[in-house]
Amino acid sequence: MRTKTLANIKMVLVLLILFFLQITNAQAPQKMSYQAVVRNLSSALIVSSPVGMRISILQSSASGSSVYTETQTSSTNVNGLVSLEIGTGTVVSGNFATINWATGPYFIKTETDPTGGTSYTITGTSQLSSVPYALFSAGSANGETPGTAVGDMKYWNGTAWTMIPIGTPGQFLQINNSNIPTWIGGSFPTLTTISNPSQTYFEPNPAGFWGNVTNVGITGSGGSVISSYGVCWSIAVNPTLGGTYSLIPGSTGLGNFYAQLTSLLPNTTYHVRAFVINSTGVTYGNDVIYTTFNPTLPTVTTTPVTAITGGTASSGGTISNDGGSAISQKGICWSTSPSPTIADNITTNGAGSTAYTSIASGLLTSTVYYIRSYATSIAGTAYGNQVSFTTTSTLSIGSFYQGGVIGYFLQPGDPGYSSIVQHGIIISQNNIGTADFGCYNVTYPNPFGNAIGDGINNTTNIVAGCSTLGIAAEVCLNLVLNTYSDWFLPCTGEWTAVGTNYSLLPLDIGGYYLTSNTNGASNQNILTYYTGGGFGSGVGAFPYKAFRLF
Questions:
Q1: What pTM was computed for the model?
Q2: Quick one: pLDDT band at residue 97, thresholds 50, 70, 90?
Q3: CB-CB neighbours of 101 under 10 Å
Q4: What is the DSSP string of 324-350?
């Protein structure tokens, strides 16, 4: 028994050390039971109170070096008894499982804080007069020399214990024909995750997401064939195939391989790991931290407005800085109010950071407009400086006039041409709808024409021969658009005339459109119009526009 003065309380700690072995499944548990009774100076039990202890295993003498130290916190029971298992506490130093009990003697040193803390004020040391047999056997291997690495094993060769060095991760033991345990099977591959420090911005990928790239290399391989490899990533450490990954199937060779990360957010830290799949399972490389770039808005400048007419004007933009991310769309926007945005009238000039020119069309004559260039990236849409201009009083191709857009001025030789009064073709700014040409295998009352001015006659002819509602001719004939009611489905000659001015029109006419000309028994003719385009025939529903003459 050992006594200590502790602040205002004098304590007497009676240590009763009891060791016993708990054997499960014929294996020695790496722990020893420890019990102590705690009493005060009056020999009264300290019951149901916390006790903090630091326990050390000393080698050779009571003042010898510690081969193992741990701390534990427990409580006395109603009888003042505290019970612990040495080997299961919080390790301070050493490894309880590797103590060689054959190289003793060993001593147990206990340091106690009877208040449950870590201010250890009561110390006691006692020699272990005996060591539990199972622990002695586990630590000393009956006097055999310990292994050299974690996982080493021994087998009995008939006369002596023989060491089996640890195999490689992924292998397993098999008994051969001589009853000798042998490591067999393919080992796990080894690989390294390699970041790409030059990748500091976003690139668009085919899926429409923003991503950046990492290069990954395999530095070695085990004995089984690699079936595939790739990378996986997450905002959490050590990502796995249970999350997001990019797989490269059928890749079996050693060396570097490349995979693209997708769906990444800007200014976000990700963890990336390479992985390899072979017959042993999935093996992961080291965890690499990658922080995506935080892009800023592009810088774009509006070019001066030129070629101003009564319906069109030319401008464009120059992108001097993409802000660190790819430009997905660019163009100009305009309005009769200041500070136009992409919610107003716009052109689209594709992606990329090259300079561009656009034509604003569908403008009113003698009207003040405001125009700005724009550029869009993952960071948002940036606008250039604002430029204002006034359209002329003269009508031009692309002018918004009498309910639509002027698509063609009549030329000498065209039906209805006048050198005194200007006439032409107006085309609806938007598609009117999508429909079939009309009834099939119908004999119409009048022939169909394909010259300028024949569209209205063709439309009337179709409706007279086909009473089906909702067909393109019927809709156009009864259409009231922007207060005008003399619309019709155009013939091929009228489409051809408008097509000569395609580049000046704010219209989406780069596809198939119905005409009012028949095509044999199908009674349908469709037009595909683009630069250098022409006519084609088919059966089915197609979009259409309405024309009118002025």
A1: 0.47
A2: confident
A3: 19
A4: TB---EEEEEEESSSS--TTSEE----
